[in-house]
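README: folding subset

This subset contains proteins for which both the sequence and a predicted structure token string are available. Records are stored as plain text. Below is the entry for non-specific serine/threonine protein kinase (1074 residues), shown exactly as it appears on disk.
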Amino acid sequence: MGVENYHVIELVGEGSFGKVYKGRRKYTGQTVAMKFIMKHGKSDKDIHNLRQEIEILRKLKHENIIEMLDSFESPQEFCVVTEFAQGELFEVLEDDKSLPEEQVQAIAKQLVRALHYLHSNRIIHRDMKPQNILIGAGSVVKLCDFGFARAMSTNTVVLRSIKGTPLYMAPELVREQPYNHSADLWSLGVILYELFVGQPPFYTNSVYALIRHIVKDPVKYPDDMSLNFKSFLKGLLNKVPQNRLSWPMLLDHPFVKETSEELDGRVMCAATSAPRECDAARRGEENNMQASTGRSNSVAALENCNPPKSHSDADLNCPNAVTGSSSPQEEFPGFASPNDVKQSGNQILDRLESNSLTVKGANIIGQDNEALTIILLPLRKWSKESLHSWRDQDVLTTRQSLRIISNLAAAGATGGLVNEILSELLNFTANVVSLKSSELSDLLAKSFSIIKLQLDNIGSAISTSYFKHWVALAEIFSQIVGGHEENSGSVLLESCACIATMLSAVDDGLKATSLTSEAAPTPVMHEAMKQILDHAKTCGLVENLSLCLATSGSSLVSGSLNMLRAACEACRATWSLIDAVETLFRKENLYLFPLNSLQSHSLPCLDIRDQERSSLVGTDSARIIEAVTRAFLRSKAVQVAIFYCLKQRIEPALSASIQILSRCCLHNAMVPGVLCGLPSSLPVTTVVSGGGDKTILSEIFAILSWCASNKDPETSNLKSKLANSSTVVLNSCLLLAIIAQCLKSTGRNSALFMLTSSPKNQLSRLSIIGHQFSLDDKMKISLQPHCASAMLALASILSLESGASVESSISEIAVPLIPRSATLCEHLKISPVEGNELGPRNMNILSYWHGIRDGCVGLLESRLKWGGPLAVKQLCASGMPLLLIDLLSNNRSITSHQGIDSTKDQVGSEHVKDITELISDVHLKLVKSWSGPGGGKDGVRDAVNAVIDILAFPFVAVQNTPSLPSATASVNNGFLLNMGSPGGKIFIEDKDMAKAIEEDMGKYLKILLEVGLPGIILRCVEYMELKDLGRPVAFLAKMIGHRPFAIQLIGRGLLNPNMVKRLLDKHESERGPA
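--- output ---
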């Protein structure tokens, strides 16, 4: 075929090498690019090398490399025909000046794949620049003009205004020193920098000055560049070639590592790529070949394919292959040299690998036992008997086997043999790990990545063999973490990812057991999952995952991001284990808040024992959390690792890190202080600015801001798009609420601990929380969990201001953010949305510790506290007191104990019986045994005091009325009750209300007698510690002034010797020593 078979349409490019025309192939209409290269002025050696290069490049097939379709020569010139791509990246730069980072990242991933393919085939481009990068249909990037630079002695234009400028050349090239493939990687870094910034890192009109800058000056990076992008460029733009980021580590860098979705897309693209299909497979001739040769379908078919041949020794003469005394391994570290490939002599593996590149070919291999035996044979050679006799040739064939298995797994072609292949891979990996050789890190990383791919294919379909795989993997992981000095970051990452994948599958499987659908696991699967969890709890896995975090954190502290993704996978694995154990515990144990138990007449209500408070999530989970918390508090490196996991914004690791921190806060009161960046020696009464920049707490607020931008279609982008932003908001706000509640429980009463002392930060942080529920339209018809969580976070932070010793402007900032009373009232009336992280049957539960409406009630309390008398009147007018009592009595809202305390200022003297239920024997025992926030002895104290504040309100309001018997005798006692209650102000500020209360006092006293309130209050004394008896004793003294109350109290044991002694002990403790 010659030029006569093409229509030459128009000139599209020109250089010293010749001219490029747009053409069209006759009869087919295919548009092509035709490059004419003149022979004039070239030596015989140049022409000989050019012919060799054309033959090599003809066989290169890659989606991101311009494909050579044809070539021919005449006495005067060569013509190379390639596919035609319309635009140059250089033209995009001229028009747009710079590109957003997510577009640069998409281009980078494609260029990295193209360069890796070239370098794998021992070809150095040597002329990387925007003009040689074309953009085809679908924004597919195509690399062109490689292989000709030296042979053609070209001086193409680098910048149209400056000819011959070495803008994109590596320092070793401009200094005319020996170079290898890493020169292309420097050029890649310069191109990506220019795409983002708008100009190369070194730019000047003087060639000599430019060379001096390239060789000596450091690269300056813009502030708006992400950490991953900056790390990637720093790796590429290293002036020392040996220290430059290179293969295979480059492929695993977070900035260019492919996601599973991207990989799936490329596999599907490969499946539709006709040029790569084997002729024999495509024509269905496998059966005929098998009949004639007696061999397997896939092997026989592959021998009739025509894959790219291995490079011969002559290939080393190609102009772009570096010549000289340096060895091939030095020229192309990370790639097998042509001589090595030739010596392996395994043509069957070559053909199997070629066919495995398509889905159709992979499926043929996957159904052929003989072919699989051939593929697995190199792995089996790494038996313990032959471990110390491995050769370079063994490594080459093993790499090839792993590549084939990876292709089969990516195509889903392993089918029913997945367990057998997993066993082979795990045996091979265990044997290689035992060698403790850093030279084999790439084999280990590849093996682990295939194991993960196979595990992903299995999903939650866990069989009995899954447990065997788990035991083997856990043992290997233990060895890798213990000997991390010998292993690269990629090995730690991939092994940890396998652990996370298996535990995530177990977690998902256990959660499916609550479903009645076909997705629910069988009893055999359920037993296998329990076995895995039992083993994980006893094999030291949590300690190994914590050590992985510490190792990653130490690497991050030193300035390297190589271990960051390993930290992300460690967090994901840790949380999957905790969640799976809690899911199993929740499945086997009834889970109810104290008030739920009281009103459902459940077994916990009927069988209460005076025992230590048990963990809500089970003792097994508590032990795991204890180990993680201990590692977090002891190791700064672990804290740094988790901080960067949050900063990465990778959703699975992000959610896992937040959940882990929530559990650690609840387990140890020191953790919230660490998250806020508070000094460990700081007295609780000393108020300082907390939550400053670079603290974990500040990152949580940044995450909420990021979630808000994801919800806004005008500000969100594909790079940062969240799959489930509502879940991230829910968990982030729960963490903020838990931090605030823990700080308050330790006596730290100031929102400055979390909001800093900066009014700007205070406004920004409170506003971003309020934003989560203020703009959600669904809140009008149902109470969304993430909105309820945001209200809880805001209420919890504002509660820190109660009793604060330092004045702040928090209240002025917060009041406009709190919904109006009528809006909060409507929220309390509507039903919660069905389904949350604890299951569809727990609509009233926000978390293990919080009810769905606790935040709403907490904001009501804040509005009352800062809204003044007007707020009280508005709430009373809206019927809020009766609504709250109704919700309590009908178990529709305030299901956690913590929500009860907030009702004390909002109800009058009605529904007394419902209120006194809250301090009944049964409920106080439930509260005492409750291990969540608001439980234990402090919870009993708060519950009793809250109810007393409600029921004593009329007594306090009229305590100065002369006509009542308690007017003078109990003023001092009334002062105790008056603390924290608005009742004492009523007589002074609102005479009409005080008069109305006074008129109804007789009726109210009768109600209290009917429900037996005096005896109930007396009974409460037995549940409270001596130091907490102030309010109950004051209320008893208030009631004793009324004869009927005194009679009932005596009848209930007021004068019992033990009770008298307890009350007198309280009196003596208040008087103090004489």
